[in-house]
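[agent] plan:
  1. take the single chain provided in the ticket
  2. run structure prediction with default settings
  3. attach structure tokens to the ticket
  4. add a short note for the reviewer (M.T.)
[agent] executing step 1
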Amino acid sequence: MCSNTSSAFTPVGLALRGPSAHRIVCTLGDAAHILIKDWPSDDGEEYVAAVKACVDAISGQIAPEQFREALLRAADEAGIAALTIVRR
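[agent] step 2 finished; step 3 output follows
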């Protein structure tokens, strides 16, 4: 299995609760850490789909941008504000 946690996608800013309240997620590794360590709830349907999509993207089965869409759905489900970060 070829794992690629450094694969980048269009950055997403997340407004989480707690000490690491505002995070910018731009790689699969960042996303995996946030989903496992910082996510407010681990029982939502979209959350579970995002975790699976993250694993699939890391293993090369789906594109990182496909994972990003799953992350946005999970954020919406959890009531986490998500913003697309535009870089010049």
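[agent] step 4 note for reviewer: The radius of gyration is 12 Å.
[agent] ticket updated
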